[in-house]
Amino acid sequence: MNMFKALARRDQVFDFMTPEVSPVDVRHGPILYLEDVSVSFDGFQAINKLNLTIDDGELRCIIGPNGAGKTTMMDTITGKTRPDSGQVWFGSRHNLLRMSEPEIATLGIGRKFQKPTVFEALTVIENLELAMAADKRVLPSLTARLSSEQRDRIHEVVRLIGLKPAAHGLAGILSHGQKQWLEIGMLLMQRPRLLLVDEPVAGMTEQEMELTADLLTRLAGKGRQSVVVVEHDMGFVRSIARQVTVLHQGSVLAEGTMDQVSSDPRVVEVYLGEESGAEVA
Ligand SMILES: Nc1ncnc2c1ncn2[C@@H]1O[C@H](COP(=O)(O)OP(=O)(O)OP(=O)(O)O)[C@@H](O)[C@H]1O
């Protein structure tokens, strides 16, 4: 490799200047950047030269048939699974392939799994306090007393997730949908820049789905969060989606608005056709 090429490598240039913990830098590009990412399990190619770019503040839906690689993609972003090759960047400074799972979470990538895992014996507020305490940067101050700023943040999040009336009740008596919102709220306590949300509306009532759509669209935006949603429910995807990415056999099959991808014959064939796993509303 010649000298210029070696200096221009994105994973090496200016490394000595990168502070330990720095805000994600999105001035010159996307918040999340995957290039030619491949993941195999015992020779089976789950992700195959995947390219994906998420802009700051974007709300992106990822759809695709069972086994398309959606979960593996999320696992790769959060550091749970290491790819065989490719690049994964958070903003222009953070090479995620060099970071551990906890480091990536601390950097501002929050992941919401399908099943809610809230502390049922604690109140909604206590769950949010605990989530704040999980953030090592604020733990020392929390063990003393909550600052007014921390208290304000908790109340801001309670309102945002629509749980103000239930704030002092036990999380165990919340509905399934409310537990999902509480868990999103717990992620928000750590002020993530990117939220990865896995099948948020599975098992929800129609009304809960509408409120979830409203919540996710309010969370996304420049200066707030970028949100990546994996979902099989096409009615829900249609209600929130601006940009949709269709994965198939570990690669991007199509990308565009919901209308564009749902009229793409290749997408209809592999996913939206009658035999597919998609729940078409
Ligand atoms: N740890 C693993 N070991 C072996 N194979 C795996 C492993 N994890 C995933 N796979 C395989 O990789 C492929 C992609 O799986 P993945 O779970 O990422 O797909 P998905 O798009 O999330 O599917 P679904 O919609 O069903 O959740 C599947 O064929 C799966 O069986």
UniProtKB/TrEMBL annotation:
One of its GO terms (molecular function) is ATP binding. InterPro entries: ABC_AA/LPS_Transport, ABC_transporter-like_ATP-bd, ABC_transptr_urea_ATP-bd_UrtD, BCA_ABC_TP_C, P-loop_NTPase. GO terms for cellular component: plasma membrane. Keywords: ATP-binding, Nucleotide-binding, Transport. SUPFAM superfamilies: P-loop containing nucleoside triphosphate hydrolases. Residues 32-274 form the ABC transporter domain. The keyword Nucleotide-binding applies. NCBIfam families: urea_trans_UrtD. PANTHER family: CONSERVED COMPONENT OF ABC TRANSPORTER FOR NATURAL AMINO ACIDS-RELATED, HIGH-AFFINITY BRANCHED-CHAIN AMINO ACID TRANSPORT ATP-BINDING PROTEIN. This is Urea ABC transporter ATP-binding protein UrtD. It comes from Oceanimonas doudoroffii.
